[in-house]
Amino acid sequence: MSRTPGTKPAPTELKLLRGNPGRRPLGDKVRGDLPADVPPPPPSLGLAGQAAWALYWQHGRAWLAMTDIPILTQLCETHDEAERLAERIREEGLTAVNEKTGRSFAHHLYNDLRGLRREIRELWSLCYMTPTDRGRANAKPTEVDPLSEWMAK
């Protein structure tokens, strides 16, 4: 994924929660409805993916919309795949020795695992799950659910 220079625009949901500090018209830019409850995880997710699903919805409820479900599904499926690769590497060992040359080398799945972890970081960024992205958007996970506060107004 390539990144464009400059600050990424904050999600419309965050602008609404902050009371539209820029005072610009938001129009129909709302990406989707904010869920009232945490949506159930897709059936395609394994244990690692389901745990990630619950964690991301718990901490991102202030800005995650129903239209973010495909991205979060992909993110959680990537967690499942990374866990499968990591488990195989743990079982078979991180390094092996070439019998002919006596040289050690990394497990053949190690680079694949590193690639999946890179993809996870990129998907985190799309969902404002990194501290840097939350700082740019001024989104702060809180103990109090901001969605409940906003809905109560």
Your description of this structure?
The model has no long low-confidence stretch (mean pLDDT 82). The chain has helices spanning 12-17, 47-60, 69-92, 110-126, 131-137, 146-152; strands at 95-97, 104-106. The chain has a domain at 68-141. The radius of gyration is 20 Å and the shape is elongated. Strand 1 (95-97) and strand 2 form a beta hairpin. Strands 1-2 form a two-stranded antiparallel ribbon. With 153 residues, it is mainly alpha-helical. Helix 2 (47-60) packs across helix 3 (69-92) and helix 3 (69-92) runs antiparallel to helix 4. The protein contains 6 helices and 2 strands.
Briefly summarize what is shown.
The protein has a domain at 68-141. The protein has helices at residues 12-17, 47-60, 69-92, 110-126, 131-137, 146-152, and strands at 95-97, 104-106.
Largest sheet: 2 strands, antiparallel
Number of helices: 6
Q: Percent helix among the residues?
A: 40-55%
Spatial order of the strands in the main sheet?
A: 1-2
Radius of gyration: 20 Å
The dominant shape is elongated
β content, as a range? under 5%
In total, the number of strands is 2
C-alpha end-to-end distance: 38 Å
Write the layout of secondary structure elements.
Blueprint: H1 12-17, H2 47-60, H3 69-92, E1 95-97, E2 104-106, H4 110-126, H5 131-137, H6 146-152
Antiparallel strand pairs: 1-2
Which features characterize this protein?
153 residues, 49% helix, 4% strand
